[in-house]
C-alpha cells in the first residue's frame, strides 16, 4: 500500500457516526474521501463539507452526502493534506490552490488531522513555494507588497510569481475567483511573523501558512502509518 493510502486509512479511525467532516483537497485527501465513501456504503452516517470543487466531485462519486457550509452549525473534524509540515505542525498548504476554503474549514473544525507521506516533514518551512491568494485587482502591486512583507518577515530573497494554469498558460484562478502568487522563500525562519506581515497587505485574501490549526499529523510509510499529536 502506498504511504498516502496508509495515512488516509489510519485517519478513518478519527471518524465517528453522525460527524460533519471537512473534506480536504489534493491527492492524499482524495484517497481519504474515497476510503470514507467505502465506509459510508457500509452504513457510516456522516456529511461532508468539501474544501474545493474537485473534492466535492470525488465525494459525490464516492457516495458521500455533502452539506453546504452555510448550513453547518459545527464541523467536527477536517482531514486534509499538506505541502510541508514543520515544527509545531505549522503547515504550508495551497499547492492545489484551495488554501482559502481549506483554511476557513480547518479553522471552523473542532479537530484538524493532516495526512501525508514523510517527504512532507521538514525542519524549516519554505522549500515549497508559499501560495498567497490575492484579489485580481492590482495584483502586480500586491505582488510587490507581498515581496516586501516576506522580507520584513525574515525571508532573505523571496521570488514572487503569478501562478499559471498548467494547461492554458493563463493565470490560475481559484475556486473563489482569485489569483495565486507562489512565493519561493527557500526558508521561512519565522512563520508567525511572516504570516502576520503577508496578511496585512491589502489585496491579500489568504496565505498558505497554517499556524496552530493542525493537532494531529498522520505520516504514512510503505508498511504503516504513524500518528503524531500535540
Ligand atoms: C491543496 C493542498 C493540498 O493539501 C496539498 O497540496 C497536498 O497535496 P497532495 O496530497 O496531493 O500532496 O493544500 O490546496
What does this structure look like?
This protein has 230 residues and is of the alpha/beta class. The protein is built from six helices and 13 strands. The chain has helices spanning 3-11, 27-41, 53-61, 99-107, 139-152, 191-199, and strands spanning 20-23, 47-50, 75-80, 84-85, 91-92, 109-117, 130-134, 159-162, 179-184, 204-207, 209-210, 216-220, 225-229. Helix 1 (3-11) packs across helix 2 and helix 2 (27-41) packs parallel to helix 3. The longest helix is centred in the N-terminal third of the chain and has 15 residues, at 27-41. The two termini are 27 Å apart. The mean pLDDT is 98. The structure holds ribulose-5-phosphate. Ribulose-5-phosphate (5RP) binds next to helix 2 and helix 4. Ribulose-5-phosphate binds at residues 24-29, 80-83, 93-99, 102.
